[in-house]
Write a structure and sequence with these properties.
- This protein has one domain (about 10-60).
- The longest helix is centred in the C-terminal third of the chain and has 27 residues, at about 35-60.
- The chain has helices at about 10-30, 35-60.
- It is elongated.
- Helix 1 runs antiparallel to helix 2.
- It starts with 8 loop residues before the first helix and ends with a helix.
- About 80% of the residues lie in helices and about 0% in strands.
- The protein is built from two helices and no strands.
- It is mainly alpha-helical.
Length: about 60
């Protein structure tokens, strides 16, 4: 059981950036009030960045 991991590295990366994206979205909503900045914070940080990181890791592993 010591070799089994509950979460993969990709999943951990995605979860961390989801939390960062939600935090960035909340802060942008609270202090800036700009809808475009809110969307970039939410989708850019929460979805695009972890996808790019995971793909780069996958490509370097091949």
């Amino acid at each position: 059981m010591t070799g089994d991991r509950l979460l993969s590295t990709e999943t951990k990366t995605t979860l961390v950036f989801m939390v960062l994206g939600l935090t960035a979205w909340y802060l942008a909503q609270e202090y800036l009030g700009n809808g475009l900045v809110e969307l970039v914070a939410l989708f850019g940080v929460g979805i695009v960045v972890p996808t790019l990181i995971n793909e780069a890791r996958r490509q370097s592993g091949e």
